[in-house]
Design brief:
This protein has 474 residues and is α/β, with parallel strands linked by helices. The protein has 21 helices and 12 strands.
Length: 474
């Protein structure tokens, strides 16, 4: 375990990107690169050690918790950070156990996990840490964590109150490794005023329908049909919408992934062919890289559509400021008739194995508070992230928020219409993979590289990263 932990710290990982990949976990996996990698498989959660005394931790005499201080590392800044600070203060002021939570902002998701790596080298770290979902495989491999499932089972916590399509991402086999906290999905935003002027009555559901709507929009005087940002998360979601895996071995859930699957199953070629077609025909100009790259043109009334996170809804409405009516629709498919779904993005809460049962017990109390209906309804209203707890939908603050922002209902319906089988891929090199995807799509659009050659380059580069990581850690 120690060797693996040290190897993980030497792996070049967690350096770019924010959100997660997706794809069906029940489709045929891609071909593995070598016979050795085929034979070299491992239990998907082999490096995570179960807590044998979990029941003793959760049933601990609550008087022992009095005066306990736990440290919580997070990556929420700005308005999100203010909302989180409010919840932490509420817990500190109102919890009956005498527990104090010290919340420490660590910067970006990458900053947070990199500090965790350094702290663990010195056996000093937090008790609870917020980690983005593409860090899931890394955290499982680290050997540093307490599986959340152990605490859930020992306490008799009803896990069915957690949205199943959200919990599915952080669940491998029958084990929930971390507790969902801030979750989002991507959706299509569109300018209803432009659509009405062009005689379009329904939002497009696919790339082909975007082209059809684009012809009418251009005829009505719209120059930019869709501001489509070059973003690795969108590539992952387009894979997911096809119901196809991103990597092999059950999308990295049956055992660790040894190669991408999107080249063998056709997912990547479908995406890049459709994307390049939109670009070549003037419907989707290159507006830059990153999740927010397409939002400015849309909010300014320059483009008729854009793709973005559900967590961007309030910011978009604020920036539009009534200049036009904002519509929302499901994330589009690249192939008509696809029956896949969307996966979640965001982050979850990981309990660290700090060999202190009292702190573990206090950490579990705090986690339960954060995912309570009241906390999640408040969190949703303040940030735009999904309430991960189904019971939050009965809270007045939640119903008031949806009434004020009816566009958010699209995100809820889309999540419920997706299936847990589209939970998403698990690979430790996801940040590197996402950066590679963005670079190669940019190269395809700017330099005329064919979709076929782009797929080949993507697969070669990402497979190399996967192989190097696996060689060090498995």
């Amino acid at each position: 375990m120690r060797k693996k932990g040290l190897a993980l710290l030497l792996t070049v990982s967690m350096i770019a990107g924010i959100l997660a990949g997706c794809g069906s976990t029940n489709e045929a996996s891609g071909t593995e690169t070598t016979q050795e990698s085929t034979e070299k498989t491992a239990d998907a959660g082999a490096n995570v050690e179960s807590v044998e005394n979990a029941e003793e931790i959760t049933s601990m005499d609550e008087s022992q918790l009095n005066g306990t201080t736990i440290t919580f590392w997070h990556a929420m800044g700005g308005v999100n950070g203010e909302a989180l600070d409010y919840l932490v203060k509420k817990f500190n002021d109102e919890n009956e156990y005498g527990i104090t939570v010290v919340a420490e902002y660590q910067g970006s998701y990458d900053d947070s996990i990199n500090k965790l790596k350094s702290a663990q080298l010195g056996n000093m770290g937090a008790d609870l840490v917020q980690v983005y979902d593409i860090g899931t495989r890394f955290m499982m491999d680290s050997g540093w964590v307490v599986p959340m499932q152990d605490l859930v089972d020992a306490d008799g916590f009803d896990l069915s109150v957690i949205e199943p399509n959200i919990a599915a991402y952080y669940t491998v086999g029958d084990t929930l490794y971390s507790m969902p906290f801030n979750s989002s999905t991507p959706i299509l935003y569109y300018n209803k005023d432009m659509f009405e002027a062009a005689g379009i009555t329904e939002a497009p559901t696919s790339f082909e329908e975007i082209k059809e709507a684009g012809d009418k929009l251009k005829a009505s005087g719209v120059d930019e049909v869709i501001s489509l940002a070059i973003y690795g998360w969108f590539f992952e979601q387009f894979t997911c919408k096809q119901g196809l895996p991103y990597v092999n071995n059950g999308n990295g859930r049956d055992s660790y992934a040894t190669a991408v699957a999107f080249d063998e199953n056709g997912a990547a070629l479908n995406i890049l062919t459709a994307w390049k077609d939109l670009y070549d025909n003037g419907y989707a100009p290159n507006v830059g890289r990153g999740g927010d790259a397409g939002l400015a043109d849309f909010s300014a009334g320059k483009s008729a559509m854009t793709l973005g996170s559900t967590a961007s809804l309030k910011q978009i409405l604020q920036d539009v400021n009534g200049k036009f009516e904002v519509g929302t629709a499901y994330f589009p498919t690249v192939v008509d008739g696809s029956e896949g779904g969307v996966s979640i993005g965001g982050a979850s809460l990981w309990a660290l194995n700090n060999n202190d049962d009292i702190k573990k017990a206090a950490t579990w109390k705090f986690v339960k508070f954060l995912v309570s209906a009241e906390s999640q309804a408040y969190w949703n209203a303040q940030t735009g992230y999904f309430p991960v707890t189904t019971e939050a939908h009965t809270e007045q603050v939640f119903t008031d928020n949806v009434k004020e922002y009816p566009q958010f209902q699209t995100a809820i319906d889309q999540l419920h219409d997706s299936a847990p089988q589209y939970a998403g891929a698990l690979i430790s090199v996801f940040p590197e993979a996402r950066a590679i995807v963005e670079t190669e799509i940019e190269n395809m659009l700017n330099n005329g590289v064919s979709p076929e050659d782009t797929v080949t380059s993507l697969a070669q580069q990402i497979n190399t990263s996967i192989e190097e990581y696996n060689e060090l850690n498995y």
